[in-house]
């Protein structure tokens, strides 16, 4: 009887470890389903904030790999309603502060102006958690994207290639 339990637990462990890396890393924009927690305007602001943290350059930035969509799904599925409300309040405050400082919306602001808005909000104790969470999750979303994993970390889904010595 112990043998059956052992075989069952080994089988579950092997299945879980083979599925987890595919789900956890190497995500791409096409694999993510949209959420209904954030409005389209809020989703656009998430993308703008991600693009401010990791801008486009010679290489793809956060928007190029779809971190905004990743953040949308992450906050909708993995965060509590209270945390989602903190993020929503932060997104509202981002636009209000941009209009107050630069007389234009956050989306119309330049990269430097957006950075200034985010720095001001990160210094505010009320919005510090949301600013830090957005920054950390943007970095995590970017570094675990398929583009970065393959091109920079040289990630291979199933390593250990077989190069036989005899031609078949």
Provide structural commentary:
- The chain has 168 residues and is mainly alpha-helical.
- It has one domain (28-151).
- Helix content is 65%, strand content 0%.
- The protein contains eight helices and no strands.
- α2 (40-53) packs across α7 and α6 packs across α7.
- The model has no long low-confidence stretch (mean pLDDT 85).
Following the backbone from N to C, one meets helices and strands in this order, namely HHHHHHHH
Q: Provide the structure class.
A: mainly alpha
Number of helices: 8
**Alpha carbon gyration radius:** 21 Å
Helix content range: 55-70%
Q: Topology of this protein?
A:
Blueprint: H1 2-24, H2 40-53, H3 62-65, H4 67-78, H5 81-102, H6 111-123, H7 128-143, H8 146-151
Helix pairs in contact: 2-4, 2-7, 4-7, 5-6, 5-7, 6-7
Name a few traits of the molecule.
elongated; mainly alpha; 168 residues
Quickly describe the structure:
The protein is built from 8 helices and no strands. With 168 residues, it is an all-alpha fold.
């Amino acid at each position: 009887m112990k043998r059956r339990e052992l075989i069952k637990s080994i089988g579950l462990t092997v299945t879980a470890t083979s599925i987890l890396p595919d789900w956890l890393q190497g995500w791409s924009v096409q694999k993510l389903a949209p959420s209904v927690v954030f409005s389209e305007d809020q989703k656009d602001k998430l993308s703008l904030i991600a693009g401010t943290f990791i801008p486009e350059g010679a290489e793809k930035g956060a928007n190029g790999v779809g971190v905004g969509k990743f953040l949308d799904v992450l906050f909708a599925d993995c965060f509590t309603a209270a945390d989602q409300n903190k993020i929503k309040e932060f997104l509202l405050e981002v636009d209000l502060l941009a209009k107050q400082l630069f007389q234009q919306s956050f989306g119309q602001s330049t990269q430097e102006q957006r950075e200034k808005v985010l720095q001001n909000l990160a210094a505010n104790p009320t919005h510090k958690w949301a600013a830090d969470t957005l920054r950390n999750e943007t970095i995590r979303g970017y570094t675990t994207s398929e583009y970065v994993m393959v091109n920079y970390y040289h990630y291979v889904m199933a390593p250990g290639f077989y190069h036989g010595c005899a031609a078949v």
